[in-house]
Amino acid sequence: MEECLFCRIARGEVPASVVYENDEIVAFDDISPQAPVHTLVIPRGHYDNLSDGVPSEVFSAVFSAVPEVARVKGVEDGGYRVIVNNGPDANQTVTHLHVHIMGGAAMSHGMVQMERS
Ligand code: 5GP
Ligand code: ZN
Which residue segment(s) compose the domain that 21 sits in? Predict the structure, then answer.
């Protein structure tokens, strides 16, 4: 059994505000939202990140869920930003592949701020 936090959320062992789920993925609100809508989509299976040999069907399940989650969260029409932090320079803090869906307000044109160049 994976002890990873998001594996535990996927198994229902750690509480989360689940907004959508199916056999392959779970979507839940971020505990520390950085936008009015900030929801994460994770595969139920554990992959560290995009570079962890993720099968195409897992990518398909995760990204197919994104518009569904956007609809459930009410940001489908207004638009939303999708972010995957991958590895240290991107500040990936939880090592279980996840997609951030952020929306509910107009966002900056510049997508990121650099801490160092
Ligand atoms: P990362 O920085 O790895 O791309 O994103 C990890 C995200 O997971 C962060 O936005 C953080 O707020 C969120 N997070 C960390 N721990 C928990 C938790 O226990 N529950 C939920 N719902 N989100 C979490
Ligand atoms: Zn995991």
Answer: 5-103
48, 94, 98, 112: which to mutate for ligand 1, most atoms within 8 A of CB?
94
- Report residue 30 as tokens: 């971020």
In a domain, residue 99? The reply is: yes
pLDDT digit string (tens) for 49-80? Answer: 999 999 999 999 999 999 999 999 999 999 99
**What span, in angstroms and rounded, lies between the C-alpha atoms of 81 and 47?**
22
This prediction has a pTM of 0.97
**CATH classification at residue 53:** 3.30.428.10
Q: Which atom of ligand 1 is nearest to the CA of 94?
A: 3
Q: Would you say residue 113 lies in a domain?
A: no
